[in-house]
C-alpha cells in the first residue's frame, strides 16, 4: 500500500492500540478506556486496516504483538509519554508563582547572602519580576512605614520597634583617605588625630536622621567637624575621598578594589573597629504579596542553613 502521511493517522485509534498493548488484553483496555469491548475490538481492526498490517496475534487464550505491532507500540509509548509530560508542564505553568518583588536597598551593598537568595528565588519562581530602587537607610524605613514599598535592605543601629527587622550580617567600615593625603600608607593612626581633618560625609549623617547608622558611626568616632563634601550615595562619597577632598567612612567591602589599586588607604585606628548591621526590614506579613512573603522566607531559609554567610 502507499505510505500513510502523519495527517492520515488516526490518533484516537493509536491510543486505543497503545492501551490494548499495555494491558495485554482487549477486555482490560476497554475497562481502562471506559468503552465497550466490541468498540475497542472494532478500533483495533480499523487501525490494522489503515496500516494494512496485522498488529496483534489474538485468540481466546493468547495475546501477542506482531513484530510490526511491537515496534508501533514502542513508538506510541514514547509519543503518549511525551504528551503526558506536556500536560504536566502546562499544569505546572498554571500554578507557577507570578508577581513582583519590589525592594529598596542602600547603595553598593555587597552581600553573598542577598545574591544567593535572589538566585535561589529566581530558580524556584522564574516568572516573578524583581524591581530594585536605591535609597539611604532612613528613606527606606520611611517608605516602608508609609506603605510605598514593602521590603528594604538597610543599615540600622538596632532593630526597629514598629517593623519586622531581620538581621542579616555585620558590615565592617573603615575610615579612608585618598592617595594624596598625608596619612596615606600610615600603619596606625590615633582617632583624635583625625577629628580636625576635612571630612566627606553621607548627607543623612548630617541631617539628624537617627535611624541611619552613618550618623551613629560619625557621632561615635566624633569625626566630621569640618565637612568638605556631602552625598547620599556611597559611590559619590568614595569618589570625593579618592580625589583627596577629605577622609571619610566607607564599607570595607566597597573599597577593596580601590585599596588594591592604591587609590584608597584604610586608616587603622587603634580604637574598636567600626561596624553596623544590615537588616531586611519589611511591612507586616499581611501587607506582603505572595511573592514578597516567599522571598522573605527564602532569606530566612538561607540564614537558618548558613548563619555565617554574609
From TrEMBL:
Alphabetized, the UniProt keywords read: DNA-binding, Transcription, Transcription regulation
Q: Does the entry feature the keyword Amino-acid biosynthesis, yes or no?
A: no
* UniProt keyword annotation of Ion transport present: no
Q: Which domain of life is it from?
A: Bacteria
Q: Which residues form the HTH lysR-type domain?
A: 9-66
A molecular function (GO) term:
transcription cis-regulatory region binding
Q: What family is this protein classified in?
A: Belongs to the LysR transcriptional regulatory family.
Output this protein's name. Putative transcriptional regulator, lysR family protein
Q: Which organism is it from?
A: Salipiger bermudensis (strain DSM 26914 / JCM 13377 / KCTC 12554 / HTCC2601)
